[in-house]
Specification:
The protein is of the alpha+beta class. The protein contains 15 helices and 13 strands. The protein has two domains: 224 residues, no CATH class; 212 residues, no CATH class. The chain has a three-stranded antiparallel β-sheet. A two-stranded antiparallel sheet has the order 1-4.
Length: 508
């Protein structure tokens, strides 16, 4: 009955969109040098968008391929190792788990392998931001609340004003505030003032929906108070960034570049035109393809992790050897504080071996099995997701590369629902910050896998880059720019159809 209802309500225009998407996928088939011709045809067939919504697709429950876990759904569901990790990989994963969770302390300390925090910092541990390996928590929607904003870091940047500044932006590092650096640090070691605290205020925006319903969006604005080192530059732009979930990162890294570039080459309805974020790696000098963080400004999980150690906790690694993190030349007392590098452990506060363990952990957090994939309402919602052209950006599935760096990631059919490309999301979500090729209105399409268990893992979690969306429907309603037409189709749905769409998302 439910399936018949969904079928009757499908608009002809939406059906035409779905058909065009299938045709476009065939026209932009990637070359994939890692595959034989026979394998290439198999991969093209299995990753083509489905046109049958009467039942679940084969292997659809296995979101993370052979690494998918069938575990009890509770707050730890995002924290399991991939099912196909070998014994040695599991050992490294468990050590990395301990490092991911541990609290670092300031120097000098009796715990010589755990000191070096700061001197300025956002958090004492990775887990403090990525709650139970899921999303971080925004300070809240209380307009009077002044917050230290642990999981919601505030990126700081200036517009490009000269060639040096443009070079910094091209390297995806941005042009920092001359006093406060690349991000606000709300904590400091003893003897130093913290940089400041963020106050968030919200304006309610009512949105009329089809069927007589109304939703209320919360539009945030940000101010920094109690500045510890004098005023910021008057042109400094604030960009809040919420810690994203950690699961499936190794599989995203194993998606072949040709598949990502093929997504950009496809023709789409609605003016959708995603593009890759290329930038110059400041370490190697090579031009690399970004695929991680909110604007695709990091090329690998290892580099993203090392960047977080440096920027969020002030800890040096082989990739970011500065012991003082985001301290600037204007913060002279910061560079006079002791660091935590120990001669007998190596020249970095997080030596290469420890960095390897954290990277192994971050690469291999497993996807949970999909739930209710054959439920009629979930199937009806999936059909609406496709017909609304959501898959123009949230590309459902890939087969990872045969020559991936780690064997557990090779040749896996995965379902992340992302194209890993930048899209103009309109003025409502714009942050005004450039990051390599990404401009101030562009964001990378976030993966949707696991999104239905967000609140199971962190009951206080919210959605979008700054956590402004309290529900999945609110997150959809904030879509603008290239996603405006898809968003408007959701607005025009009946209340029952919107519930089906959300049921589908909650099954991921």
């Amino acid at each position: 009955m439910a399936r018949q209802y969904a079928g009757r309500r499908a608009a002809p225009a939406a059906c035409a969109v779905a058909a065009l998407l299938v045709a476009a996928a065939a026209q932009a088939a990637p070359s994939r040098a890692d595959l034989s011709e026979a394998d290439r045809k198999r991969v093209q067939a299995v990753t083509a968008p489905t046109r049958d919504f009467s039942r679940a697709e084969q292997f659809e429950t296995m979101q993370g391929g052979a690494g998918t876990v069938a575990k009890l759904v509770n707050r730890d569901i995002f924290s399991h190792p991939a099912a196909n990790l070998d014994f040695e990989g599991r050992q490294g994963f468990m050590v990395g788990n301990g490092l991911f969770r541990k609290d670092w302390v300031s120097s000098p300390s009796s715990t010589l392998a755990s000191d070096g925090l700061g001197p300025l910092f956002n958090a004492r541990s990775c887990q403090a931001c990525h709650v139970k390996d899921g999303r971080g928590t925004v300070p809240g929607f209380d307009p009077e609340q002044l917050s230290d904003a642990v999981a919601l870091l505030i990126r700081l940047s200036l517009p490009a004003g000269n060639d040096d500044a443009r070079d910094q932006i091209a390297q995806a590092v941005g042009r920092p505030d001359p006093v406060y650096g690349h991000q606000l640090q709300p904590f400091a070691v003893a003897g130093l003032p913290a940089e400041g605290q963020v106050r968030i205020t919200y304006r309610e925006i009512p949105v009329a929906l089809g069927g007589g319903e109304t939703a209320t969006l919360m539009e945030p604005s940000y101010t920094i108070e109690n500045l510890g080192y004098g005023p910021m530059h008057p042109e400094t732009v604030l960009s809040p960034r919420l810690a994203p979930p950690m699961l499936g990162l190794g599989l995203l890294e194993a998606i072949h570049e040709d598949d990502i570039l093929a997504n950009a080459a496809r023709g789409h309805e609605d003016g959708v035109s995603g593009r890759p974020n290329w930038f110059v790696d400041p370490v190697s000098g090579a031009r690399v393809l970004g695929r991680f963080n909110w604007k695709a400004g990091q090329p690998t999980v290892e580099r993203q992790s090392a960047n977080a150690f440096s920027g969020d906790m002030g800890l040096s690694t082989p990739l970011f050897p500065n012991h003082y993190g985001d301290c600037t030349a204007a913060q002279t007392a910061c560079a006079d504080m002791p660091h935590g590098a120990q001669e007998h452990l190596g020249e970095h506060e997080v030596p290469g071996r420890l960095m390897d363990f954290v990277t192994t952990y971050s690469l291999n957090l497993a996807l949970p099995q999909r739930r209710d994939v054959d439920d009629p309402r979930v199937l009806a919602g999936k059909k609406l997701f496709y017909e609304s052209n959501c898959i123009a950006c949230h590309v459902p599935k890939y087969v990872t590369r045969r020559d991936a760096a780690r064997p557990e990631h090779r040749f896996q059919l995965i379902w992340p629902y992302t194209d890993l490309l930048l899209h103009d999301m309109g003025p409502g979500l714009a942050d005004g910050q450039a990051e390599a090729d990404a401009n101030g209105r562009e964001w990378r399409t976030p993966p949707l896998w696991g999104i239905g268990l967000t609140r199971t893992v962190n009951p206080n979690a919210t959605w979008l880059h700054d956590g402004r969306a309290r529900t999945l429907l609110e997150a959809i309603l904030w879509h603008g720019g290239e996603a405006q037409a898809a968003r408007d189709r959701v607005v025009d749905m009946t209340p029952a159809q919107r519930k089906d769409l959300i049921r589908f998302l909650e099954s991921l």
